[in-house]
User: Fold these one by one.
Assistant:
Number 1:
Amino acid sequence: MNLKNDLLLRAAKGESVERTPVWLMRQAGRILPEYRAVRESVSGFIELAQTPELAAEVTIQPVDILGVDAAIIFSDILVIPEAMGLPYEMVEKRGPWFPKTVQSESDLKKLRIADGVDDLSYVIEAIKITKKALNGRVPLIGFAGAPWTIFAYMIEGSGSKTFSKARAMLYTQPDFSHKLLQMITESTINYLKAQIEAGANLVQIFDSWAGILPPDHYEEFSLRYIQQICDAIQEVPKTVFAKGAFFARKEMGQLNCETIGLDWNMGIAESRAMIGPHKTLQGNLDPAALYGSPKEVEAATKRMMDQFRGSRHIANLGHGVYPDIDPEKVKVFIETVKNYQ
C-alpha cells in the first residue's frame, strides 16, 4: 500500500522532506477525552490493549484529532514478559506490578522465548486492523521495550526510582543476567518481526530506564542487546530511544539504526556532534513546555526547531506527553512544527 504521507519514513532514511514530520510518544492515551471514553468501556488498560478493535481505535484517534504524521500502535512494553510466561497487572495510579519475579535459574527455566505471532496475537491483530483503517494515510509505528528495561521490571516486580534489585543482579549474577537478557532479546526480535509482517512501517525501541545504569554496565547489559535487535531487523527503519543515556550518545551513533531519540536533557548541538551527521535525531521538546500558554508553546517549539534546522530531524517531545496536558496545547506544538519555515 502506498502511503499518502510518508514524511516520517523519508526523514528516518535521511531523504529530502518538504517539512519536518511530527508525532508524540504516548499520543494515543490519557490526554484525549475520546481515549478516556474508550478506556472506561472496559475493565482497564490491559483489557483495552488486548482487545484488537479497541486498541486500533485509540491508535488512530491522534491521527484524526491531533493531526500527527504517524500512528503508534496502542500497546505496552510489558507484553513481552507476559508472552515469556511472566504475567503482570496494571494497578491504577501505581503502574505495572508482577505477582512473581525472576530471581534464579529455576525461575528462568519457567520462561520461554516468545513467539511474536502466537504469543502476542492480539497486538498483531490490532496492527492489521489499524493498517486497514488508516488506509495509507500515515505510517504505523511498532515498538518494543529494550531488553534492559524489560529485565528491570522482571527482576524488580514493579516500577522503581532506583531499580536497585535489578542493578544488584548485574553485579552479583552477571551470567544469569546475560541469559535472561538474551531470552528477552530473542523474544523481542520475534515480536518486532511479527509487527513488521503485520504492517508496521517503522519500529522504535524504548529503553526507559537506560539512565540509571553506569556507562560500563549500559554498554555490557543494554547496548549490546539493542545492537542485536538492530542488526536482526532489516525490513524497516529503526529508532532507538534511550532515556537518560546521555553518556552513550557516541556509541548510539554506531548502532545499526536510522534514528536516535533524544530526551529533553540532551543538548541538540552536542548530540549532533557526538552522534554524527548520518543519523536522524528525534525529539526533543521538554513535555512540561506544553503547560505554557499557546504563545509560549509556539515559542518553545520554534526554539527547538531552530536548533535542529538543516539536519535530519523528526519532531517529538523528549519523553511521553503528560496525562494532564491540554490537547489544544499539543495541537499548537504540532501545528507550529508543520508551519515552521
Note: The radius of gyration is 19 Å.
Number 2:
Amino acid sequence: MSHPDLNLLVTLDVLLTEGSVVRAARRLRLSPSAMSRALARLRETTGDPLLVRAGRGLVPTPRALELRERVGWLVQDAEAVLRPVEMLDLKRLVRTFTLRNQDGFVENFGPDLIARVGEQAPGVRLRFVLKPDKDSTPLRDGSVDLETGVVGKATGPEIRAPALFRDRFVGVVRMGHPLCEVMMTPARYAAGRHILISRRGLDRGPIDDALAPLGLKREVVTVVGGFSEALALARASDLIASVPERYTGNLRDGMFCFPLPVPLPEISVSLLWHPRLDADQAHRWLRGCVRDVCAGITRWIS
C-alpha cells in the first residue's frame, strides 16, 4: 500500500486559502506550471477536482470546502511539531518529578533542593522514593525520572551517569564514646562493636576486606539496610557506624566522626537518567538543580 505525499497538504492548504493557482505559486515560490502540476496530483490523490473554473477564476468544490478548515489545522499542528521547543517558562511549569535515592540523600540534600525548585518553579513537585537496588528498569520505563547513586553492574549501559561528587567513608560514634578520646588505629577500630550496612543482607563488606591483610577482624553486632538506621543505632549506643561522609552530612549532626584507619577507595556518586530525557528542557533544568545543590555541600573532616 503506497503512502500519500504529505507535502501535498501544505500545497492544498495554500491553494484552498488563495483560491488561485497563480497566487498560490507566488506564495510557495513556485512557477505557475509547477503549481498546476501539484494541483493535478492533488486531484488524483483525493479523487476530486477541488478547484473548478468559474469565469476567469476558480471556485472550491463541496469536498474542497469540507477539507479547507481541516487541512489548515493539520498544517498548523505539523508546523508546531517540527518547530524548535519554546523557551522553558519555569514559573508556569506544572510537573511532578520522581527521584530515586538511597536513604540519606533526602535528609542531606532534600531541604536545599526543595527550596531551590520551589523558588524557581513553584508548580513543580518532587516525589522521593527509596532505591533498593541498582536496577535501571524504573529509569527505562519512566516510573523514575532521576536517580543518584554509585554505578554498578546492574546499571543499564545506555543510562547517562555523570559524576556528582566523590565521597569517602568515615567512622561515626556517639559523643562521649570511648573512641572520641584516643588516637584511632586499625586495631582500636577493629576492636569496637560494629554496624554493617548492606542492602542485600551480606555479613561482610569492603571494610572487612581492608582489615583482613592486617590480620584484623571486626565484630559485626548487627546488619542494617541503610545509613539512617545505622546512624540511629550508633547515636543511641556504643556501636560504630561507617558511612559515606558527604552523603550523610545532616544525619551525623551532633556525632563524632573520624577518618577510617584502613585504606578504602573513594566512591563516586553519580546522577543517573535515561537518554530519552536528554533534550527535555524541564528535566535538564532539574538535573542542574541537583548538581548545584550537591556541589554546594562540602563538609570534609580533617
Note: Confidence is low (pLDDT under 50) at residues 297-302.
Number 3:
Amino acid sequence: MTSPALAVSSSAGARKPARFKSLVTKYRVPLSILALCLLPWLLPSKALAVNVLIYGTVAVGYNLLFGYTGLLSFGHAAFVGTGAYVTGIAIGQFGVPWYLAVLMGVIGGALLAFVMGALSTRTRGIYFSMVTLALAQLVYYVALQTPSWTGGENGLRGFTVNKINLFGFDINFLDPVNKYYVLMAFAAAALWLVSRILNSPFGAAIEAIRENERRARTCGYNVERTKLLSFTLSGTICALGGTMSALHLAFVPLDSLHYLSSGMIVMMTLLGGASSFFGPFIGALVFLVMEDVFSLWTSHWQIIVGSIFVLFVLFLPKGIWGTFLTKVMR
C-alpha cells in the first residue's frame, strides 16, 4: 500500500513537467527572443549569427506547413527567392525605400504562395510534394530566363542598404551588430505571428488536419481552405526570410530559388524538430555550424552532413529541440 507521503511526492513530481511545459508554451515568444538576443555573443562570428537568424525564420515559416499542418513541400525556396528578388529589384531598380521594399517582397511571396497553394493543395501525399517541386522549378527558370530583371545566372546585385532610419535615428546597417538586431526585429515578428496562429482556432484546425484529415473533415473543418491558408501564411513568412537575406547580402543568388535550397530548409526543420516552436532555429544553427566546420575539411562536406542527417532521422525523429522538450517534460 502506497503511503500518503509517497503519493504526495509522486504527485508533486508529476506536476513539475506539466508546470514547465505550461511556462514554456505561455512565454515561448519572449523566451525565444531572449535566446536570439544572446545568439551573436555566443557564436564565433556575427555573420554566422545573422545566417542562423535568416534561415531560422525561413524554417519557422516552413514548419507551420510541415510540422503543424503535416504537408511536405519541396518548393519553399520559391518564396524565399521571390521575397529576396522583389526586395532587391525594388531598391536597386526603382529606388524604393528599404521598408517598402521589404513589404513588397513579403506581399510578392504571399501572392506566389497563394497561387502555388491553390494548385498544389488539390493533391495529397507525394503528389503534393512533387507539384510544389515542379512549380518552384518553374519559378527558378523564369528567373533564369529574365536576366534584365534578376541578373540571370549571375544573380541580382547593386542594391546595398548602408543606413536605416528608424524613428528619426540613422543606424549604420553595415555594422554587423546593428544589422543583426534590425533583422532580429523581423524574426521576432515572425515568431509572434506563428504563436498567435497556433493559439487560435485556426491553429487547432491545422493540427487536426495533421493528425487525421478525414476526421477533421468529418468534424466540419473546410480542409481545402485551411490547407490553402496555411500554405499561404507559410510562404509569406519564408518570403520575409528572403527579404532579410537580400538586405543582409545586398545580393540575391539564383541558387536561392533552386530545389537544393528547398531541401536545405526541410533538413533544418527536421534537425531542430518539426512541430516544435523554437526547433527551426536550433536546426538552422546546427546545420550552418556543420556546414562551416566540415567545409573546412573537405569540399564534399554534403556527404558528412547528409549522413548525420540520416542518423538524426533514424534515432532522433523529433529533432534536437523536440527530443529535449520530450525528455524534460516527462
Note: Residues 223-249 form the longest helix (27 residues).
Number 4:
Amino acid sequence: MHDLALHILLFLFAAAFIAGFIDSIAGGGGMITIPAMLIAGIPPLETLGTNKLQSLFGSGSASLAYARYGHVSLKEQLPMAAMAALGSVLGALLATVVPADALKAVLPFLLIAIAVYFGCKPNIGEVERHHRTSKLTFTLSFVPLIGFYDGVFGPGTGSFFMLGFVTLGGFGIIKATAHTKFLNFGSNLGAFFVFLAYGVVLWKVGLTMGAGQFLGAQVGSRFAMAKGAKIIKPLLVITSIALAIRLLADPAHPLRICLGI
C-alpha cells in the first residue's frame, strides 16, 4: 500500500484521539477508528490488524492512568489479562477461516440490551456489591470468552467486560471501568500478534494513531475519574446504542441482507 498523505495521517490521529477518549470511559473506540481507516483507503484486513496495534496504546494508556490513582492493581490483574489474551488469540485464528456473520447479526441487539440494562438501573455500579461468582471462575470462564469474541469480531468488547464486572463481580462503576481497560489491553495484544504473523499491520499508521489513542485515553480516564458514574453510565448507554445503530446501518449487515433492505 502506498504511503498516506500527511493530511490523512493527521485525520487518523484526530480520530484516534477521540476514540481513545471515549474508549477509556465507556469502550466503543473501534466504531470511530475502523471507519476512519476504511475512509482513508486502507484495505479491510489491514484495517483490522492495524486497529489492534493502535488500540494497544489506548487501552494501555488508560490502564496506567487508572492504576496510578489506585483504581486497579495491574500486577494482581495479570492472570485475567493473560486469559483475555489467550481467548483473543484463539478468536483471531478462528476469524481467519470462519466468517463472523452470526456475530454481526446478533451483536446490535446485545448492545441495545446492555444499554437498556444500565439505563434502567439508575443506581447500578454506584457502590460495590457482593460478587455473584468467584474470582477464579470469572477469570477462567467469562474473561476468555469475551477475549475470544474480541479476537473474532471486536466491537463492544469494553461494554461486555464492563457488564461482567458490574453484574458478576459486584464492582462499582469506576473500578469496573479501570479493570476493563487492562483486559482490553490483553485481548488487543493477543489478537495483534496473530495479525502481525499474517503481515497485515501497517506500522506507520498504527503508531501515528497509537499516539492519538494514548493522549485521548489519558484525557478520558482523568475525566472519568473526576466525574464518576455521572458520566460513565450515560456514555456507556449512548456508545452501545450508537454502535448498534452503526452496525445495523451497514448494507452488508446479515439482517439487512436477509430482509432485503
Note: Residues 193 and 227 are 35 Å apart (CA to CA).
